[in-house]
């Protein structure tokens, strides 16, 4: 199934908010709605898409701060996050039954397209990546040329190593990578490119990865 993707650079922290769904359908989802709910809605409208779901990669403010106004403006919008993230975040729990807690390996369907919700802890306990249509949306787990911090509350560099090398590393090399921030030399990458060039993929053993990720800055 061909994939529609629109990458929106929004806010003061170089965030990418992504709209995606089946290319030949009307329904779409937003990943990590933040900074400007009106701009997100306008982009979807411009592309002839109806937002039916909000998928959260994790709970940090710069990834969720437009969720509340979107839910208020779009009564049919469904929101989803990993259960471990909901348990760790008072902000997510405040949405009550407006936000569904997922279990690892869950699938959400957007316009008939299955979206695999992959639990990838390391940045936060319930970080997740979304895999659909030959693309993976990686939030703050994997960046172009980098990976997410592991020194914030709930971070764990050992879990990050596993999430990168075992979990994301098992996806096909041609998978397109859409990160949650514009921190690299290009807005979109592939797993093959990241495996070949990303210094966090170059650290192939746990101890060297942890030392590199947690080095003083």
How would you describe the overall organization of this protein?
With 217 residues, this protein is of the alpha/beta class. The chain has a single domain, classed as Ribonuclease Z/Hydroxyacylglutathione hydrolase-like (Metallo-beta-lactamase, Chain A). The protein contains nine helices and 14 strands. It has helices at 37-46, 61-64, 67-73, 83-88, 90-93, 157-167, 191-197, 199-202, 206-213, and strands at 3-10, 15-22, 27-31, 50-55, 78-82, 99-102, 107-110, 113-119, 128-132, 135-139, 142-143, 146-147, 176-179, 189-190. The protein is globular and about 45 Å long. The mean pLDDT is 97.
Query: Which overall shape is indicated by the principal axes computed on the Cα atoms?
Result: globular
Task: Determine the fraction of residues in helical runs and give it as a percent range.
Answer: 25-40%
> Quick one: CATH superfamily?
Ribonuclease Z/Hydroxyacylglutathione hydrolase-like
Mean pLDDT: 97
Given this structure, which CATH class is correct?
Alpha Beta
Total number of beta strands: 14
Measured distance between first and last alpha carbons: 43 Å
Task: Report the biggest beta sheet as strand number plus sense, adding barrel if it closes.
Answer: 6 strands, mixed
User: What is the CATH architecture assignment?
Assistant: 4-Layer Sandwich
CATH topology: Metallo-beta-lactamase, Chain A
Percent of residues in beta strands: 25-35%
How are strands sequenced across the largest beta sheet?
1-2-3-4-5-6
User: SSE string, helix = H, strand = E?
Assistant: EEEHEHHEHHEEEEEEEHEEHHH
What's the Cα radius of gyration?
A: 16 Å
Summed up, the domain count is 1
Structural class: alpha/beta
> Which residue ranges are poorly predicted, with pLDDT under 50 across at least 5 consecutive positions?
none
Helical segment count:
9
């Amino acid at each position: 199934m061909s994939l529609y993707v629109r990458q929106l650079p929004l806010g003061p922290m170089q965030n990418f908010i992504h709209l995606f769904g089946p290319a030949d359908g009307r329904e779409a989802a937003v990943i990590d709605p933040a900074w400007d709910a009106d701009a997100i809605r306008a982009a979807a409208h411009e592309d002839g898409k109806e937002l039916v779901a909000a998928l959260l990669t994790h709970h940090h403010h710069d990834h969720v701060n437009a969720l509340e106004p979107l839910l208020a403006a779009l009564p049919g919008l469904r929101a989803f996050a990993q259960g471990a993230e909901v348990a760790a975040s008072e902000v997510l729990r405040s949405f009550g039954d407006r936000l569904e807690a997922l279990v690892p390996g869950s699938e959400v369907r957007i316009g008939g397209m299955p979206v695999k919700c992959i639990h990838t802890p390391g940045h936060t306990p319930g970080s997740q990546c979304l895999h659909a249509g030959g693309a993976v949306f990686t939030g703050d787990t994997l960046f172009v040329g980098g990976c997410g911090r592991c020194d914030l509350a709930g971070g764990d560099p050992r879990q990050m190593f596993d999430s990168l090398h075992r979990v994301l590393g098992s996806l096909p090399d041609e998978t397109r990578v859409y990160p949650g921030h514009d921190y690299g030399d290009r807005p979109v990458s592939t797993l093959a490119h990241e495996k070949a060039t990303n210094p966090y993929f170059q650290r192939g053993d746990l101890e060297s990865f942890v030392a590199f990720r947690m080095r003083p800055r």
